[in-house]
Amino acid sequence: MQFDHVWHGGSVATLASGGAAFGLIENGAVAAKNGRIAYVGPAAGLPKGWTAAAETRLDGRLVTPGLIDCHTHLVYGGSRANEFEMRLNGASYEDIARAGGGIVSTVKATRGADEKELIRQSLPRLDRLIAEGVTTIEIKSGYGLDTETEKRMLRAARMLTGERQIDVVTSYLGAHAMPPGATDKDAYVAEVCAAIPQIARENLADAVDAFCEGIAFSTEQTARVFKAAQAAGLKVKLHADQLSNLHGAKLAADFGALSADHLEYTDEEGAAAMAKTGTVAVLLPGAFYVLREKQLPPVEALRKHGVHIAIATDCNPGTSPITSLLLTMNMASTLFRLTVEESLAGVTREAARALGRLGEIGTLEAGKYCDLAIWDVDRPAELVYRIGFNPLWKRVWRGQ
Q: What is the pTM of this model?
């Protein structure tokens, strides 16, 4: 049988459900043809007489699916490093806001940047993630807070696929915060809902997201956004229960959301509802760390009810300026007590599930895209255990 590329002589962690931990195959092999996996399994099981245009000997290295960062705000203008310094010097949130800081400063910088400039500022952040084996990334809008800028952010995110070999999934997050100077939340929600059909027609977003919280939008306002999204044929996701329990997790489940994210204050009812609808819990330890939060997400309740758990960087300029999915895995295990397998599954299989892409990516199985991360380590625990250590040996996207 003729393959385009065969990798063999190492361990292959397929992350497929069931079977051995990590789906681990010792002395395994992966073969690609036309950008997809044509064979994965023991090297001894390769078809007799196989040939390949390219062959790579792994010399004992570990192969995993390419990593997936399923919750980011990667495209934005400006920086908030000065606010970080102000907080350390004793300034309050109100002090920073009065000085024109907070999300207002990011909105101003983003509105002032064209697509080319947004791409220029975003590429260094994207490159850091790619350098750690990320092959798929979700990018949200949410720093324009007007239809024109939100669409510009989404176009810039889509255009990143032309700059780098990576799959970009986009989410419209118009219901992120109130625009500067606006006071009528219901009126702004109406604007967000009116923009959704335009965004769907122009194929700018794969899903619609919202921030359901006391400082953002109510459950009723969020439901309006979700109904508009579903009417336009778009899936929904939700920033839920991060700062208080508004029962956002249950709301997300009621609408069949792909995921509910953050979840620090989610209760047992919310976890049970998510389990029934298959809504994925996306945990974001970076924001938990940066905000020095105390309320842990209900990991035991999520496990008890069988909720799928993903993790992501939440890369954003204010509350999670992180561009390392490896560090995020360590945080998830250290702060939230996820197991090594849960953390690795959280940035592969379950992250793919949170994006509605599990049929194409997230595990190493025949027929899926051949997105690989090849690591110069002996065992999967090395990827979660170390801090500030990047053992990526080779990243493969679509078999290349």
A: 0.97
